[in-house]
Predict the 3D structure of the following.
Amino acid sequence: MDVGTAVTAAWSSGISMYGVLALLGIAGRAGWIDGFSLLQRPGVLVALIVLFVVELIADKVPYVDSAWDAVHTVIRPVAGAFVMTQAQDASFGEPLLALSGGALALSSHSAKASTRLVVNASPEPASNIVVSALEDGFVGLLMALAFAYPEVAFAITLVLAIVSIIVAVALFRTARRIARRLRARRDATRTGVDDP
């Protein structure tokens, strides 16, 4: 598999791991990319597609999405590491490839999880559906670009990795401020109720 495709798939795994792995398996079976014989097995492909559908639904439900992200905080970087080790024309050793793939997936996962924490603080549920649909569409477009033009996808993904780290830090701080305000409001409500 081309390095550009591997880098893009590793980063995208942090947002939609099962969807990306399923796409890589389908692309391998179709002959669009080399590698990933494990992902091309019919049983594995079916399992990935089923898990993608579960993730697609869970990702659109407020707070369920954050719980899903919490569970996948370790799993998505491992998937990113696995994807990067499949890069064929890389001049780096496998441990370095695995570390870089895990870091790429962790950067996008962190941005996604932080975004969801902030979105979950909004009072209406429609924003979760919109954000999730945008994420899914973006990953699909990015992966299509990675299959057709790996070098272009590589350059875009490197920029996205830097942006996702900045977004994750900024939104995590915002989420902490929102959580403090909600706790203060809840404590003030309790205090007001308990007073005679």
